[in-house]
Specification:
CATH superfamily of the largest domain in chain C: Type I PLP-dependent aspartate aminotransferase-like (Major domain)
Number of strands of chain B: 9
Number of helices of chain C: 13
Largest sheet of chain C: 7 strands, mixed
Shape of chain C: globular
Low-confidence stretches of chain C: none
Strand content of chain B: 25-35%
Oligomer: heterotrimer
CATH topology of chain B: OB fold (Dihydrolipoamide Acetyltransferase, E2P)
Shape of chain B: globular
Number of helices of chain B: 5
Helix content of chain C: 25-40%
Number of strands of chain C: 14
Strand content of chain C: 5-15%
Order of helices and strands of chain C: HHEHHHEHEHEHEHEEEEEHHEHEEEH
Chains: A alpha/beta (507), B alpha+beta (129), C alpha/beta (461)
Number of domains of chain C: 3
Distance between the termini of chain B: 22 Å
Mean pLDDT of chain C: 95
CATH class of the largest domain in chain C: Alpha Beta
Largest interface: A-C, 200 and 197 residues
């Protein structure tokens, strides 16, 4: 590790510059450290009903003492605190955020405005149908629209995240297999899959059989034909897969599975690559979850909320979560609870309605041509990055890719510089790093997904930064190895955090 | 160096036998693969383990792995130091980083495991993949 | 594809014809369509999708505005609706701050150097949860109250070997229990339900008897779905040997009710919506989970911990992540692979603004105003409050007439007066659930009592 010692000087210079700059903006104490007795951040109207003795309303043993150490902070204090905290984050509004498989696209503000319309924001989930026709109609329209985009006969809007949608889908598969006489034992999963797939499958009571990818990084048709027996409940694939490669033989997958009574499950996380170009239902896919926070532009919010609607083929319709939204003959909308074969309810109430509003707003803003243009430009942008970077970074699979491209650190590891270092150095150039070390079938993976939201100039700036880093790896590897240098904090001691976890503030 | 006075399982645990007692831990190779160990979950004293039965789990920053008992026996001691200092598994896997001691129920089981030399060859083959 | 015209530029997609030309040249292909060659022709569609649009913001506002106006809400009604979703005061600055791009449009904080804002906020949120529930360790949030209960049941199950039953009080939110039923249907876990006594509290003797040797956990809710505040100590005494889960569906109640952590409960889960999150037809909300220290390494979902960076500066990072789904894969023990970060942030802001005094004052006002309505209603002849146990801000009302009809009459008076209980508990046709919060004025409450009285007299005639 001492090879780079001679290059330490510039690093120190950078630190000195940082140390000399006013630091306050990059530091912010915990809100609890701002508390001071007697301050307040709220005001309620005075109590306007006759006050009764507390002891009469709630016996003393049921009441708590004052909440120890809870805050006393002014509104100004709260606003300053959270504004300062916000400045420590990178965000898509500030620039390219090329996380592979995460589809960090522009989040239109009209979505936010519509979701805040009081008629939606104040509607209550347990109101009778005649009082909430607006909310029900919106959900109905979103389902019709997703049905058309997916090419599938029904879509449930109840799941609130990708993993939640997956679980919903696999529970339906299991219920359908049970109904057909035998739940079966296995779910087939390619080795390139996201970790939630085996997790969801196991959760539904299945064992997992892993399918090895072929040299293109896709599912091998012969291996699949061999693996599919009467004991396989379903195959879970991602289309395009986590390398960005489309499973060109997807229709044959469906034929092989259907012949044995098994289902084809598709992870729709990468729908952005082909929305408006091709439809999962037309490929023979039986069940697909889609992340509204990816393809349909609802904000990630630092890790949620999202929504994970699931589309199904005719065979799985009876097993959808209950209730469903239906339109009566008179044009009114209602919740249908009568689904005797339903897997049940995936969550209280009706899913993340506020996220559904944003997604429908976006889809209407795009229109049919706009939806298609999403895929076209997303794929163009990814292939542009691929073309510009392929001489600087190793491309482990050279099959044609759609919306994302996966490089590895193979050309850099000779200098003892690895994917993590490259990712951290990108921060110094002002870019959020790509997804790293995923998919698992690529050692040291750098998975880049620019989305359609990026103009050519931003893509060029990113590529220039990546190329500059590749050059730095050759000339000043220590600079990259010790990056980042300009962020609010530098590399963290993660082992310390996990060995003796400090998970809350204490006085 | 892989200590020659211990025996090794394919799942990278070692057992060091002294009389009727076996001391179990994970190998140098295994700790390196795991990276910074942050937590070790071990069985209670008195519990009975079968050979190849899961005895607990080990967590590093990036992964969690099951630990398997290379031999059968009753757990007679657990390394309490690992509670506060799991990093001992990294710094001294064959010494202070040991995990449990068992009263062996079948002394011949250890003989069926790999020797240090065989284990080194095994690891070399494994990592060549 | 070739028979379709070139797609026009769009305001959300910057690259236009000139950019496309230059980029295609760099890539070395003739047309965008060449980039899609790997998708076989027989799965491509040769038409545009049949969906409306593209709409300008003007058209979007018009259409969605009309839709929204078809809902009957607090916009022009007095609302007394609860049942797990409550209308509370929302401080103005919360929504303004949530719209800051750095919070709204960032991803999961996997890269801590450029995500300290989100990470520190979650750490603060965890601290609030811990203080409020009297338990040691909170996670970064779960989807909502119902799925939080699912995760709590799963956590409790993996603490022990060979126990297969969970006891859930019938007075836990019925949709929460339904969700648990869905989650565990293939896991060999059986749900045993325990009813309530005449005061509306969980039946202690039935609870004691239900806790057989094969039970791994018991879950109760307080205030329960009938609005009645449970006696934690009595429940702890009746369920000595199992993991105890407390569900809190009305989070503001923690401002005045004694916290479950101080009464022998091991896990507290709940719904944080009441902390200033709009009811928005059921979501997004924010589930919380807080556990005893000994259970922290079994916690599902994300956790943020404190550490230092290479320069020794205090910093925050996702920790104990190895149990998360994307790492555990087939061995994962929970369904959650994300959290509700933005809503947890809103809750953190709410709790910070309200603080020690505000949380207590909100809870006190809810309690007092609900008590005032209780008093007014119980004065009406033929109205009864069937459950005598202590309540917080919600309670069951019974009249001699079917609830739907009575509530329909209140609706004519611009009152959204409650939630019929029969949809959850068959046989309770004449009962409905009424909730009161600090937003309800004395005038609204008086009007409610008068309108209910009038509705009953009309039906009597």
């Amino acid at each position: 590790m001492s090879a780079g010692d001679t290059t330490m000087t510039p690093v120190l210079e950078q630190q000195e510059v940082a140390a000399a700059a006013p630091q306050r903006i990059l530091r912010e104490g915990l809100i609890f450290e701002h508390s001071k007795a007697g301050r307040r951040g709220y005001q309620l109207p005075a109590l306007d009903v006759p006050e009764q003795a507390l002891d009469q309303l709630l016996p003393k043993p049921l009441r708590r003492a004052a909440i120890e150490d809870e805050l006393e902070v002014s509104e100004v204090g709260v606003i300053r605190h959270f504004t300062r905290l916000s400045k420590l984050n990178m965000s898509i509004d500030a620039g390219l955020y090329p996380l592979g498989s995460c589809t960090m696209k522009h989040n239109p503000r009209i979505n936010e405005e519509i979701a805040r319309t009081p008629g939606f924001a104040l509607s209550h989930p347990l109101q009778p149908a005649h009082q909430i026709q607006g909310s029900l109609e919106l959900m109905w329209h979103l389902e019709q629209t997703l049905k058309e985009i997916f090419g599938m006969p029904r879509v449930t809007l109840q799941p609130v995240a990708g993993a939640h949608g997956e679980l919903t889908g696999i529970l339906m598969v299991r219920k359908a297999q049970i109904k057909a006489g035998n739940p079966r034992t296995y779910i087939l999963i390619p080795d390139s899959a996201h970790g939630t797939h085996p997790a969801s499958a196991a959760f539904a009571g299945y064992e997992i059989k892993e399918l090895k990818s072929n040299s293109r990084g896709t599912v091998d048709l012969n291996a699949l034909a061999e693996a599919v027996t009467e004991d396989v409940a379903a195959l879970m694939v991602t289309v395009p897969n986590t390398l960005g490669v489309f499973e060109s033989e997807i229709k044959k997958f469906a034929e092989i599975l259907h012949a044995k009574g098994a289902f084809l499950y598709c992870d729709g996380a990468n729908l952005n690559a082909f929305v408006g170009i091709a439809r999962p239902g037309d490929m023979g896919i039986d069940v697909m979850h889609s992340n509204l926070h990816k393809t349909f532009s609802t904000p990630h919010g630092g890790g949620g909320p999202g929504a994970g609607p699931v589309g199904v083929s005719e065979r799985l319709v009876p097993f959808l979560p209950s209730p469903t939204v239906e339109r009566a003959a008179d044009g009114t909308f209602y919740l249908q609870y009568d689904h005797p074969d339903s897997i049940g309810r995936m969550r209280a109430f009706h899913g993340n309605f506020g996220v559904l509003v944003r997604a429908l707003t976006y889809i209407r803003s795009m229109g049919p041509e706009g939806l298609r243009r999403i895929a076209e430009i997303a794929v163009l942008n990814a292939n542009y990055i691929r073309a510009r970077l392929k001489s600087s970074y190793y491309l482990p699979y050279d099959a044609a890719t759609l919306h994302e491209v996966v490089f590895s650190d193979k050309m850099q590891s000779a200098q003892d510089v690895h994917t993590l270092d490259i990712a951290k150095r990108l921060m110094d150039y002002g870019f959020h790093p790509p997804t790293i070390y995923f998919p698992l079938i690529v050692a040291g993976a750098l998975m880049i997904e620019p989305t359609e939201s990026e103009p050519k100039e931003e893509l060029d700036a990113f590529c220039d930064a990546m190329i500059a880093i590749a050059q730095e790896v050759k000339e000043r590897p220590e600079l990259v190895r010790t990056a980042p240098h300009t962020t609010p904090v530098r590399r963290l001691d993660e082992a310390r955090a996990a060995r003796n976890p400090i998970l809350r503030w204490k006085k | 160096m892989t200590p020659e006075d211990s025996r090794y399982a394919k799942s990278h645990e070692y057992v060091h036998v002294e009389g009727a007692t076996g001391t179990i831990g994970i190998t140098e190779y295994a700790q390196k693969e795991l990276g910074d160990v942050v937590f070790v979950e071990l069985p209670q004293v008195g519990s009975q383990l079968e050979q190849n039965e899961e005895l607990g789990s080990i967590e590093s920053v990036k992964a969690v792995s099951e630990l398997f008992s290379p031999v059968s026996g009753e757990v007679i001691e657990v390394n309490e130091k690992l509670k506060d200092k799991p990093e001992l598994v990294n710094t001294d896997p064959y010494g202070d980083g040991w995990m449990i001691k068992v009263r062996l129920s079948d002394a011949t089981e250890a003989d069926e495991l790999m020797s240090a030399e065989e284990y080194d060859e095994y690891v070399e083959r494994e990592s060549a993949h | 594809m070739s028979n379709l015209p070139e797609t026009p530029t769009h305001r959300f997609i910057p690259n236009a014809s000139e950019d496309v030309r230059e980029m295609l040249a760099t890539i070395g292909v003739r047309a965008i369509e060449d980039l899609f060659a790997s998708i076989p022709a027989d799965v491509k569609i040769d038409r545009l999708l049949d969906v409306p649009g593209p709409w300008s913001e003007i058209e979007t506002r018009r259409w969605f505005g009309q839709l929204a106006s078809r809902n009957k809400t607090a916009v022009d009604h007095a609302t007394f609706l609860g049942g797990g979703a409550y209308a509370h005061y929302q401080p103005a600055c919360i929504d303004q701050l949530l719209l800051r791009a750095e919070f709204l449009t960032s991803y999961t904080p996997y890269q801590p150097e450029v995500s300290q804002g989100t990470l520190q906020s979650i750490f603060e949120y965890q601290t609030h949860q811990s203080m409020l529930t009297g338990l040691d360790v909170a996670n970064a949030s779960l989807y909502d109250g119902s799925t939080a209960l699912c995760e709590a049941v799963l956590l409790a199950e993996r603490l022990v070997k060979n126990k297969t039953k969970v006891v859930i009080a019938k007075s836990v939110h019925p949709q929460y229990t339904e969700t648990v039923r869905t989650y565990v249907q293939n896991l060999g876990i059986e749900i045993v339900e325990v009813g309530w006594t005449s005061d509306g509290r969980v039946d202690g003797e039935a609870l004691r008897q239900a806790c057989t040797a094969d039970v791994f956990a018991v879950a109760i809710q307080s205030p329960n779905f009938l609005g009645v505040v449970e006696d934690y100590d009595a429940i702890t005494a009746a369920t000595a040997a199992v993991t105890k889960i407390a569900v809190v569906a009305e989070a503001t109640s923690l401002g005045i009710l004694t916290p479950p952590g101080e009464h022998g409960f091991d896990i507290c889960v709940g719904e944080g919506q009441a902390w200033g999150v709009p009811t928005q037809f059921g979501g997004p909300y924010v589930g919380f989970m807080v556990v005893r220290d000994a259970l922290k390494r079994y916690m599902p979902g994300r956790l943020v911990g404190e550490t230092v960076d290479v320069d020794g500066r205090r910093a925050y990072v996702l920790t104990l992540a190895t149990r998360e789904q994307h790492i555990r894969r087939g061995k994962a023990t929970s369904n959650i692979c994300s959290n509700e970060a933005l809503i947890a942030l809103a809750a953190n802001m709410y709790l910070s603004l309200m603080g020690k005094e505000g949380l207590r004052e909100v809870a006190t006002q809810c309690l007092q105003k609900a008590a005032y309505l209780r008093q007014k209603l119980s004065a009406i002849a033929s109205v009864t409050l069937p459950f005598a146990g202590p309540t917080y801000n919600e309670f069951v009302v019974r009249t001699p007439f079917p609830a739907a009809g009575i509530l329909g009459d209140l609706e004519h008076e611009k009152i959204l007066g409650g939630i019929p209980l029969a949809q959850f508990y068959p046989g309770h046709d004449n009962d409905f659930l009424v909730a009161v919060t600090e937003l309800n004025t004395r005038e609204q409450i008086d009007h409610y009592a008068a309108a209910l009285s009038a509705a009953i007299s009309r039906k009597r005639r």
